[in-house]
């Protein structure tokens, strides 16, 4: 009658793969507790760690919207439960915060119902949480948060998602500067048209990154962590973006870009020492312009 589930933060886009690449990190992440109750319907009993900012109504919060969709799909609208959400990451951080809540929620509910669906089948429900939170049902945060590791969304209609193996010695440094960017706004400023020249460059890097990951070719990973479409537009929202990126690369990172829709920035490095050095340099560079930043180090 009681289930507790954890879902991790994620890095979406991974430089060149807007809306199609994402990977999970170990920590932080959100935790959801659900408890069965006799009356039908879902009630949010408590939310911690959000400074009172998230909606408390079940129809408006990503964590419960996904549960309502799942109950409807299973024809279990008679079911009732009470939900407690523990948010362990900032909102509007580019760390897949809404995705972690949605995934933890849908996993907990599925478990409480006796696991009628497989993990992968929960994905479309978790995506509905993203629709509520950011206006777009992208899967590059919920996918890896649900399945772990590095995932590719080859197609959205129909949904086709698969995992890519990554080299053992690959580490991620995720650095969160203390500012907030709303994913909806960060999507709104993007251009709808892309030139053929940029499409070719981006496709080359997408192919290069996947191949580099699969062959443990760190040089190829490094050369492929280039985004000619999204990063030039969004980076203007992040103070000292170019300096922070340069600091990461000068201090041993293979590459560095925006995590999801930002403002967090991530670097990939070979080995934990390089990842630590790169992250510390990124934090120092933000500090030079008076921005506090928090670093999270993780294997992938
Ligand atoms: N692919 C999405 C975006 C991820 O960049 O808007 C948001 O976290």
From TrEMBL:
<keyword id="KW-0418">Kinase</keyword>
<keyword id="KW-0547">Nucleotide-binding</keyword>
<dbReference type="InterPro" id="IPR006204">
    <property type="entry name" value="GHMP_kinase_N_dom"/>
</dbReference>
<keyword id="KW-0028">Amino-acid biosynthesis</keyword>
<dbReference type="InterPro" id="IPR000870">
    <property type="entry name" value="Homoserine_kinase"/>
</dbReference>
<keyword id="KW-0963">Cytoplasm</keyword>
<dbReference type="GO" id="GO:0005524">
    <property type="term" value="F:ATP binding"/>
</dbReference>
<dbReference type="InterPro" id="IPR020568">
    <property type="entry name" value="Ribosomal_Su5_D2-typ_SF"/>
</dbReference>
<feature type="domain" description="GHMP kinase N-terminal">
    <location>
        <begin position="63"/>
        <end position="149"/>
    </location>
</feature>
<keyword id="KW-0808">Transferase</keyword>
<comment type="pathway">
    <text>Amino-acid biosynthesis; L-threonine biosynthesis; L-threonine from L-aspartate: step 4/5.</text>
</comment>
<dbReference type="GO" id="GO:0009088">
    <property type="term" value="P:threonine biosynthetic process"/>
</dbReference>
<dbReference type="Pfam" id="PF08544">
    <property type="entry name" value="GHMP_kinases_C"/>
</dbReference>
<comment type="similarity">
    <text>Belongs to the GHMP kinase family. Homoserine kinase subfamily.</text>
</comment>
<protein>
    <recommendedName>
        <fullName>Homoserine kinase</fullName>
        <ecNumber>2.7.1.39</ecNumber>
    </recommendedName>
</protein>
<keyword id="KW-0791">Threonine biosynthesis</keyword>
<dbReference type="InterPro" id="IPR036554">
    <property type="entry name" value="GHMP_kinase_C_sf"/>
</dbReference>
<dbReference type="InterPro" id="IPR013750">
    <property type="entry name" value="GHMP_kinase_C_dom"/>
</dbReference>
<dbReference type="Pfam" id="PF00288">
    <property type="entry name" value="GHMP_kinases_N"/>
</dbReference>
<dbReference type="GO" id="GO:0005737">
    <property type="term" value="C:cytoplasm"/>
</dbReference>
<keyword id="KW-0067">ATP-binding</keyword>
<dbReference type="GO" id="GO:0004413">
    <property type="term" value="F:homoserine kinase activity"/>
</dbReference>
<comment type="function">
    <text>Catalyzes the ATP-dependent phosphorylation of L-homoserine to L-homoserine phosphate.</text>
</comment>
<dbReference type="InterPro" id="IPR006203">
    <property type="entry name" value="GHMP_knse_ATP-bd_CS"/>
</dbReference>
<dbReference type="InterPro" id="IPR014721">
    <property type="entry name" value="Ribsml_uS5_D2-typ_fold_subgr"/>
</dbReference>
<feature type="binding site">
    <location>
        <begin position="90"/>
        <end position="100"/>
    </location>
    <ligand>
        <name>ATP</name>
    </ligand>
</feature>
<feature type="domain" description="GHMP kinase C-terminal">
    <location>
        <begin position="212"/>
        <end position="285"/>
    </location>
</feature>
């Amino acid at each position: 009658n009681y289930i507790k589930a954890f879902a991790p933060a994620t890095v979406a886009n991974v430089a060149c793969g807007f809306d199609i690449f994402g990977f999970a990190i170990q920590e932080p992440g959100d935790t959801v507790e659900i408890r069965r109750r006799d009356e039908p319907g879902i009630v949010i009993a408590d939310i911690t760690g959000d400074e009172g900012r998230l909606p408390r109504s079940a129809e408006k919060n990503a964590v419960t919207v996904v549960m309502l969709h799942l109950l409807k799909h299973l024809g279990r609208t008679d079911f009732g439960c009470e939900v407690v959400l523990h948010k362990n990451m900032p909102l509007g951080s580019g760390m897949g915060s809404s995705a972690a809540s949605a995934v933890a929620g849908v996993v907990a509910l599925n478990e409480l119902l006796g696991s009628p669906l497989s993990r992968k089948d929960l994905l479309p429900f978790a995506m509905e949480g993203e629709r509520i939170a950011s206006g777009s049902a992208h899967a590059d945060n919920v996918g890896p948060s649900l399945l772990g590791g590095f995932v590719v969304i080859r197609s959205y209609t129909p949904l086709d998602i698969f995992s890519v193996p990554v080299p053992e010695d690959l580490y991620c440094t995720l650095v969160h500067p203390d500012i907030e960017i709303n994913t909806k706004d960060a999507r709104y400023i993007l251009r709808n048209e892309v030139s053929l020249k940029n499409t070719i460059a981006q496709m080359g890097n997408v192919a290069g990154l996947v191949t580099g990951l699969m062959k443990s070719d760190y040089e190829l990973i490094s050369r492929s962590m280039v985004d000619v479409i999204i990063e030039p537009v969004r980076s203007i929202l992040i103070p000292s973006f170019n300096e922070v990126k340069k600091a990461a690369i000068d201090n041993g990172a293979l590459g560095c870009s925006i995590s999801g829709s930002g403002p967090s920035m991530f670097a990939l490095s070979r080995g934990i020492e390089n990842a630590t050095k790169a992250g510390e340099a990124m934090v120092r560079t933000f500090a030079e312009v008076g921005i506090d930043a928090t670093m999270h180090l993780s294997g992938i």
